[in-house]
Amino acid sequence: MYPSFMDEDVVDGMDTFDSSFFSKVDAHDELCSMPDDVFESPPLSATYFRGLPQPEDGKSPEAEQPFQRAGPSRGLPVVAAAGPKRGKRIASRVKHFAFDRKKRYYGLGVVGKWLNRTYRRSISSMVRSQLELTDSHRPYFTYWITFVHIIITLLIICTYGIAPIGFAQHLTTALVLRNKGVYESVKYMQQENFWIGPSSIDLIHLGAKYSPCMRKDQQIEKLIQKERDQERESGCCVQNDNSGCVQTLQVDCSETLATFVKWPDNSPAFDLNNSSRKRISGAVCAQDPRTCEEPASNLPHIWPDDITKWPICTDQAKSNHTGLLHIDCDIKGRPCCLGTKGSCQITTREYCEFMHGYFHEEATLCSQVHCMDEVCGLLPFRNPESPDQIYRLWLSLFLHAGVIHCLVSVIFQMTVLRDLEKLAGWHRISIIYILSGITGNLASAIFLPYRAEVGPAGSQFGLLACLFVELFQSWQVLEKPMKAFLNLSGIVLFLFLCGLLPWIDNIAHIFGFLSGLLLSFAFLPYITFGTMDKYRKRVMIIVSMLVFVGLFASLVIWLYVYPINWHWIEHLTCLPFTDRFCEKYDLNQVLH
After folding, report:
1. Is pTM, for the whole model, over 0.85?
2. CB half-sphere exposure, 483, CA atoms < 13 A
3. pLDDT in tens, 74-96
4. Where would I find the H helices in 331-391?
């Protein structure tokens, strides 16, 4: 057990922490100019007492400092204010807020202020000197990440609009032209967004954390293989009244109103690899190896006797009367990618647009399009059959599900993140913020693969872990540290319980917190309470980094090398209080 965590007594000898420690004001401090006040970090004594008049009620300015004195109060010299108060020198409150360099005390901060933390009455001279030398940094990273979040959220809403607002599913019904040439009543169900933002499909297209876009998914692979097996058995259904044709299965083609063209029964093409053998895979509406000129089916590039491997014909022979029913007809349906799992249907453009799908005018078969590439968006896959958008792990940290979601992030970052960055600096806090968010998204991609998640939830819980580490590192200088620990634990426990509600990614919260805890031990500044404590904390830095690397490597292996599927872990992010409490928030669209 590290003494800086739990020991009640400090290691070094105790000195009385009286006001003389703060009253060392020299002439240089008295003559500091306004730019020095704004852009320099004055010593602790000058920060609190330079230029402050003595109150009429006799209350010492020392009452405002975070340290408690053991001895009797000592009077301070009254320094007359030569000009207006420093807080009024900058006209704009926004500018004053942005350039605030008020001393950030180790172990206290904005959360410590909310929870009424104070230092002990007596602190050793060694620790006291470390607290005095603690620097306060400008929160550049906080301002940058907050600005980026706001701008991206506004651009997304202006571009993609707002989905139906609420917690249930939104149902839309309309009469839509279908493959048979008649209008049918069609239903489209869409998950509502209570964050006031775009739909889930749009968020996936923008870069949300979504496993099927980052790796090959077994469930989606089975779905695609099933569709291709059915496509091999399909043929061209030609209407007898010459109203059109569509690629479909024989059971879906009317025996009285249409003619089902299927090889080798209806004018099949010959296999050029074996001139005596007729093709058995086909026919395909509006496509035939005998009439396609680009790419032509000639030696050595002969189309295989498997329509699921046929290319897209970009140049068809210019003839309206080929004598082939499946070529001379007017095609009514083409491939349409629907839903979030890359499902494909041969359907009309009207139906595809109503179902918010991606219509492919250039193709005739579903095997000729790559629906997951369409669903995921962003940069195309290097191999259309293998999703590889690993960059979603960090890209989703800059996205939000809506206005309310972004507002929560802005408030959190301008309070907690800003306060921690003043303590640690932009380089340390940015490492903790980004790596915690990536680790949380990585775990969420493993255990919640079909849920699209956006936002820096893992990063924010990593920052909450920083508060615990700071508390542990300053345990010996705080008054009632156990009370401070229980107060902070209660707040974090409440936030974890909120993660049990639908559409809140508690997996990212948990692993973001764990990674933030490890990274905070490695990167946050600390104070020491003796030689042994110094070496212990250095060992803790090495151990924390090794454990974090092991955790991160394990998650990468579980995502790409040995995928795991633990269904029970889903209860950590959504408890099924009712039968449909969690089920209705599945992102897979219900199509009718």
Report:
1. no
2. 8
3. 343 444 444 455 545 555 555 55
4. 349-354, 371-376
